Amino acid sequence: MFKKILIANRGEIACRVIKSAQKMGIKTVAIYSDADRNALHVKMADEAIHIGPSPANQSYIVIDKVMEAVRKSGAEAVHPGYGFLSENMKFAEALEKEGVVFVGPPSPAIEAMGDKITSKKLAMEAGVSTVPGYMGLIADAEEAVTISNQIGYPVMIKASAGGGGKGMRIAWSESEVKEGFESSKNEAANSFGDDRIFIEKFVTQPRHIEIQVLADKHGNTVYLHERECSIQRRNQKVIEEAPSPFLDEATRKAMGEQACALARAVGYTSAGTVEFIVDGERNFYFLEMNTRLQVEHPVTELITGVDLVEQMIRVANGEELPFKQEDLKINGWAMESRLYAEDPYRNFLPSIGRLTRYRPPVEGATPRGGIVRNDTGVFEGGEISMYYDPMIAKLCTWGKDRASAIEEMSLALDTFEVEGIGHNLPFCSAVMDHPRFVSGEITTAFIAEEFPEGFTGVALPDAMLRRVAAAAAAMNRVGEIRRTRISGRMDNHERHVGDDWVVTLQGVDFPVAINADKGGATIAFADGQAMRVESDWVPGQQLARVLVDGTPLVLKVGRISGGFRLRLRGADLKVHVRTPRQAELARLMPEKQPADTSKLLLCPMPGLIVKLNVAEGEEVFEGQALCTVEAMKMENILRAEKKGIIKKINATVGGSMAVDDVIMEFE
User: Fold this and answer.
1) Which CATH architecture has domain 600-666?
2) Class of domain 208-450
3) How far apart are CA 381 and CA 357, in angstroms?
4) CA angle 223, 226, 228 (to 5 degrees)
5) Distance from the Cα of residue 119 to its chain's centroid
6) Which of 27, 437, 477, 663 could tie 4 with a disulfide, CB 3.0–4.6 Å?
7) What pLDDT is stored for residue 283 in this prediction?
8) pLDDT tens per residue, range 593-650
9) What's the DSSP call for residue 596?
10) Position 495 pLDDT exceeds 60
11) Is 298 in a helix, a strand, or coil?
């Protein structure tokens, strides 16, 4: 077995690989850029080598710099993780020439299947059903329009060397093709050093289901069942699960066998993923093969018990797979929520800054018989950089069935504490509770259809509001008792705490009466319903674990005047607990109106202005592109919300902008 492995990556996947390597007794070497000098993967590895400036195209994806680190470290093998150089044939060849083992497929397989254009041609030649599209190289935007018109709209513009939603656009018209083609080329060049683009038909109402394959160098190829990856936003996966709630055993077997046949056809070894689009009749079509470890691999590990990273290392070392196809059973159900550094209340735009609080849920077995796992690459006090992908953790749960896995995920999301940056935990919670998701009736259009106006938070149903109101009333009583004790006015402090209160949240008043004892409190509502609340929460704790009628409720807690800020299940609530007289007076108070920003274009995220499409004095129309802001390797086009005239432009191309900086003003 190898004595030392270098991980040619960063963030959570580098940490993930380090964990398996250390479990196997293998020393690890991390590489890092200027921005990652204090990163978690650097701290976890046995050694760490600096490879250059912060931008990835000056450090992590510069083959010469990575090879220099390999030579300096004396590593016998390199694991590339995903993204960056993981599907770069030249990198695999450079390692081969150096006599260093690439923990991945052989370079011919990378060339054949890592390139989306070539892989589609090979799949077609092998008789695999593929989505209609143009597989040749596209010279410019005009040719892209011609091809798109022939295929028929909508079309998908994709980076040939891409992945993770980078360099990918859906176009519904000629103008969108022109615009999307240029942005896709720019993103592809910046992210992968390869700006080749291809176009295919965008199949509406599809499911995105992928098959995990694993092959050794002794002719053994198996599939580890499927993952459902249909919950996507901007072509980037957000929620994944294994198995799929849609496939039957016959379709699963057919897809798995086809994926294995394709892998054998190109001499594939190591872990890889064959992605399919599946329609409502369970017809499936080959999309692409990712010749690397997938971001969502933990859900497969949770339902099969197989450590994919360990098997990749063992295959690279020449070992045979320790199991056959018939040994690989599906055990239970697993969910994965990707934690992104992005603000769901600002249309999911990237967010950067310091993690002032980062407390993931405890990993391992749960009281309900489930499992929690969190793959992460950050720590409390660390910085989220603008230079890299915004994903900072992958929260995974396992349960005996799908309903159990969802409930475990809901509680784990509520337990996850993140402060200092915008993040998508509330959105993930909203998905978990959405009736359509719970039913399993999902497609890749789920987010666009169910959140057409973006995410503005969650309105909790009445039953949940009552549970929260009961919890808030009991928590307020604990706070009142503590304040009375501190005042020292009387020995019998409970005489100062009244029993009647009004809990106001989400625009609803709940008059309640509290009957407390040593074990907790019974909260009686005005309509006669009563709830038993038990908790060990004390004022100052930012996480409250409460039992309401025996059912667990987890609340993120913040103080506001006269109550709490409580966050759970995707909702962010201002909860006021007042005496009846205070509640009566509060109803007479006017609401504060927000500032008028209708004549300003505010920068929605920290980033760089890479393009200004308009000039001062120019008339613009609704939907017209005004400028492009680049952040975390993604280009974001800002458009006019209505007709108007540009009064003043405060930004310059190449200039850096902070959140809510005024880019331009309108008359």
Assistant:
1) Beta Barrel (2.40)
2) alpha beta
3) 7
4) 160
5) 27
6) 27
7) 86
8) 778 888 999 998 888 899 999 999 999 999 899 999 988 767 889 999 999 999 999 9
9) -
10) no
11) helix
Closest CA to 637 of 186, 255, 232: 186
Phi, psi of 470 (to 5 degrees): -65, -45
Residue 275 and residue 212: Cα distance in Å, rounded? 9
**Which pLDDT value is given to residue 239?**
98
- Of 65, 44, 67, the closest CA to residue 55 belongs to 65
Residue with tokens 């020449």: 318
Contact 271, 86 (CB under 8 A): no
Dihedral over Cα of 193, 285, 315, 2: its sign:
positive
Q: Which CATH architecture has domain 4-103?
A: 3-Layer(aba) Sandwich (3.40)
269 touches 315 (CB < 8 A): yes
Look up 383 and say whether it is catalytic.
no
How many angstroms separate the CA atoms of 662 and 387, rounded? Answer: 23
Phi/psi of residue 417, nearest 5 degrees? -105, 120
> From the candidates 187, 288, 301, 408, which is the catalytic residue?
288
Q: In the numeric block, which tokens belong to residue 662?
A: 């005024």
Which CATH number does the domain 462-586 belong to among 3.40.80.10, 3.30.70.1560, 3.40.50.300, 3.30.700.30?
Answer: 3.30.700.30
* pLDDT tens readout for residues 448-480: 999 998 999 999 999 999 999 999 999 999 998
Residue 400 is predicted with a pLDDT of: 98
Q: Is the pLDDT of residue 502 over 90?
A: yes
CB-based burial, 102-118: b 16+ in 10 Å, e otherwise: bbbbbbebbbbbbbbbe
C-alpha to C-alpha distance for 32 and 47, rounded to whole angstroms:
11
Measured in whole angstroms, how far is the alpha carbon of residue 41 from the centre of its chain?
A: 19
What H or E segment, with its residue span, contains residue 121?
helix 116-125
Domain boundaries, the chain: 4-103, 132-201, 208-450, 462-586, 600-666
- Is residue 479 a contact partner of residue 523, using CB atoms and an 8 Å limit? no
Q: Classify domain 132-201 by CATH number.
A: 3.30.1490.20
Of 388, 312, 390, residue with least CA distance to 61: 388
Tell me whether domains 4-103 and 462-586 share a fold. no
Q: Kindly state the tokens that stand for 287.
A: 């999309």
Question: What pTM does this model have?
Answer: 0.82
- Give the sign of the dihedral formed by CA 31, CA 63, CA 103, CA 225: positive
DSSP state letters, 520-553:
EEEEEETTS-EEEEEE---TT-SEEEEEETTEEE
Residue whose pair of structure tokens reads 């593929």 in the numeric block: 130
Per-residue pLDDT tens for 327-348?
999 999 999 999 999 889 888 8
Please compute Rg for the chain using Cα positions. Answer: 27
Give 68-111 pLDDT, tens digit per residue. Answer: 999 999 999 999 999 999 999 999 999 999 999 999 999 999 98
What gap in Å lies between CA 360 and CA 607, rounded to an integer? 28
Q: What is the largest CA-CA distance in the chain?
A: 87
Residue 494 has pLDDT above 50, yes or no: no
